[in-house]
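User: what does the whole thing look like in 3D?
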Amino acid sequence: MRNAIPNIVTAVNLVLGMFAIIFTLQGDFAYAAFFVVAAMVADGLDGRVARYFGVSSDFGKELDSLCDLVSFGVAPAIMAYAYMLKDFSGGALIAAAFATCGALRLARFNVNTGTVKGYFMGLPIPAAGCVIATFILIGIKPSGWIFALMVAVFAYLMISTVRYPDFKGKEGEPIRIIPVIITLLVGAYILYLNLTFASILFVPFFAFALFGILNTIFGLFDGRSVQ
Amino acid sequence: MRNAIPNIVTAVNLVLGMFAIIFTLQGDFAYAAFFVVAAMVADGLDGRVARYFGVSSDFGKELDSLCDLVSFGVAPAIMAYAYMLKDFSGGALIAAAFATCGALRLARFNVNTGTVKGYFMGLPIPAAGCVIATFILIGIKPSGWIFALMVAVFAYLMISTVRYPDFKGKEGEPIRIIPVIITLLVGAYILYLNLTFASILFVPFFAFALFGILNTIFGLFDGRSVQ
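Assistant: Here's the predicted 3D structure for the full assembly of 454 residues, as C-alpha cells:
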C-alpha cells in the first residue's frame, strides 16, 4: 500500500488532465484551465510523496512521464485548438506539434536522467502546459497568427537547449541578476495591464519561461554556464 | 538521420492520435476512428523500422510509450466520452479510468521488459484503443450502462493478468485449439449480424481481446502456461 500512494497521486494528475480535455470538449475553458493547474499541483506532489515514503521506483517515473504528457501536452494543445487554433489554417498541426514536442521533451529527459544535473534542458512540460492553459483562462484573444506563434514558441522551448533552473541542485546553472530583474519587470507590467485571478496564475509560468530564455542568452556572455 | 527515422514514425503515431481527438471535438467519429487505426499502423511500423535500420534506442522506446498513451488511451477514451459516456453519470470518470489503465499498462510493460517473455501480460493498449474506436465507427448505440461497462472491461483487461500471444516469441504462451474455435465462431457471427467496413475493422481487435480471455481460462486447466 505504501508503494502505491505516490502512484495514486500520479494517476490523479492524469485523471485531472482527462477532465481538462473533457471540459474543453464542452467549451468550458475556465474549468479546463483549472484542471491543468490542479494536475500540476498533483504532479508536484507525487515525487515528494514518493521520497517521503522512501518508495521512488522506475515504475513511478514511467507513469509520471505518461501522465505529464496527457495533462501538460495533450490537454493544453486541445484547449489551444478549441480556443483559437481551429480557425487558423494548419492549427491542428500546431496543436499536434505542441503535444509532440512535449513527448520528445519527456523521452529525452527520461533517457538523460542522471547525466545532466543542476538544471533542466528545455522548458519543463508542466510549465509549458500551464502557460498555455492559464493564458486561455485570461480570455484575451490575440490575432490568430500571434496565438499560433505563441503555441509554437512554447512547443519549441520544450525541445530547445534553453536552460531552466530546477531549484533543487546545489551546483545548478547560475541565476543571473539582470535576467531576474527584467523578468520581474515584465511580470509586474503584465499584472499592471491585467490584474485578475487568471493573470496571477499565468504570470509565474510565463515568467519562468521568459527567465530561462534571458538567463541562457546572458550566460552566452559570462562563461559561467554549467557544462 | 538514420537514427531519427523510426522516431519520426513514432511521432506520426502521436500526431494521428491528436487528430483523432480533434475530430472527436468536431463530432466526427468516423475520421477520429480512422486516425486511431492509422496510428496503430504507424505504431506497428516504428519498431520494425528501428530494427531494420539497427537503431533501436531507449529514447525510441520511451517515445513509443508516450505516443501510444495518447493514440490508444486518451483518444479512444475521449471518443467514448463524446459518443455515449457524456450522457452517463460518472462517464467522465470511466473515460479517465480507461486512459489511466492504459498508462498503468505502459508503465508496467516498460519496467518489466526483459523479464516476461513470449506473451503480453494484459491486453496491449493499441488493441484496447482500437476495439473502442472501431466499435464507435460501427455506430451502434447500446444502452448507456452497457457501453460504460464495455469501456470499463477493456480498461480492466489492460491491467489484468490475462495473457496475450505476442506472435514473436518461439516459446510463448501456447495457443489452445478450443479458444481459437470459439473466437472464430464469435467473430464470424458478429460479421454475419453486421457486415460493414467498420465491423471488418472491429472484429480482429475484438477477437484478439476475446481470445486472450478464453485462452487464459482454458490454460488454468491444462497446466501448460508459460511461467
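In plain terms: Strands of chain B lie at 119-121, 163-165. The mean pLDDT of chain B is 92.
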